[in-house]
Amino acid sequence: MAIEQFIERIILKGEDSMKDIRSRIFAEELDYAGHNGCSASAFICNDIVKGCMETGTQKRISDEADRT
């Protein structure tokens, strides 16, 4: 019954008394893309690629140092 009331009142009729609070909390705490300029998955992927590139560069420098 509570789910039906929620759907009817908030979703269908738009009577959402807590929308402003939820929107503010989302913007302050949960809006990952807004804070970081990309989605969480893109941020993680970019970080992995960056780490791999740095590790590869460090390995090549180390390999070259070993050859000299």
What does this structure look like?
This protein is mainly alpha-helical. It has 4 helices and no strands. It has helices at 2-12, 19-30, 32-36, 40-67. The radius of gyration is 24 Å and the shape is rod-shaped. The termini are far apart.
| Total count of helical runs of at least 4 residues | 4
Label the structural class.
Answer: mainly alpha
Mean pLDDT: 85
**Terminal Cα span:** 77 Å
Number of strands: 0
Into which percent range does the helicity of residues fall?
Answer: over 70%
What is the CA-based Rg, rounded? 24 Å
Q: Helices and strands, in N-to-C order?
A: HHHH
Taking pLDDT < 50 over at least 5 consecutive residues as the criterion, the unreliable ranges are none
- Beta-strand level of the residues, as a percent range? under 5%
Instruction: Specify the overall morphology.
Output: rod-shaped
What about the largest sheet?
none
Write the layout of secondary structure elements.
Elements: H1 2-12, H2 19-30, H3 32-36, H4 40-67
List keywords for this structure.
68 residues; mainly alpha; 4 helices; rod-shaped
